[in-house]
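Why VWA domain-containing protein? Reviewers of the renewal asked for a concrete example.
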Amino acid sequence: MNGLGLHPVLPWPVAVLLGLVLVGLCVAALLTRPAQRRRWALRTGAAAAVALALLGPGVAGAQAPQASRAINVWFVADTTSSAMARDYPGGKPRLDGYREDIPKIAEALPGARFSLVTFDSSARATMPLTTDTNALQTAVDTMSQEITLYSAGSSITVADEYLRGALTKSKERYPERARVVFYLGDGEQTNGQAPTPFDLGDLVDGGAVLGYGTAKGAPMANLTSIGESDGDITTTDGQTAISKASEDDLKKVAEQLGVPYVHREGGDIAPALAQAEPGELVEDASASTPTHVSLVWVLATLAAALLLVDLWLVSRDVSRITRAAREMEAS
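Here is what the prediction returned.
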């Protein structure tokens, strides 16, 4: 053990302000209510324990080896209107499959750097490379299909140019880090042209193409604005439009990237990762992370004990008052 440290359970300003308010109110009552001084002393002690707990005190420990990999990972997700076709298991949209699988993959690759790239008529980085998995989770949670009104057809390989640039920069800046691509989509080409093949050469070291949806297809939600839909998309003759997944085209994308193709219907992500062979990528043996033993539970226990004593005192006083009232009525 190397010393005491603080790991606030809330942002610093919020934790300090909330602690001061709790303790301040109790101290004010302690000073202005002498008849209840004992009870307010207990409450002040409990408030102080809670205020300290909000700061997250902990005792530092040794450096723990981190199962980290020296890799940069790009998730390339198809967010065209077909992402909202409801033929993922449970009648869910395909986009829900992306949201389930991306965090699973990130959890299986601790220490890696992750970037989220989405594409419809063009490709863009929704999140740049980072080790912050919380930021990745937020980006995945807020990922949305394109607004239907602006949909003008797209190509399943429209991310080629963006990926080539990103992977090239990564190779130049981090030559020691492997470059991994997980492509998530349904393979439906909607711009009326044959998809231009991915041309990334030897820039991709591993990954997988993850396929969602069925050949039978399903209707797609008509997105009118971010997060709001208005029924299903219809064709020009008023019929419900059906999006059909194309495994053949996804397999071609996998071949172009030099990675395996895996059809996804939820469940364990391990089979997809096994085929992607992340275990053969370079391990970052130098990575480690400090550990600490949290003392929050000690303070929380103390606060609870003080409040239980306070509750007992209140119950005792109420019992006395009730008994005295009954005796007065009886007399």
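The first strand starts at residue 3 and ends at 6. This is the kind of structural detail the renewal will allow us to pursue systematically.
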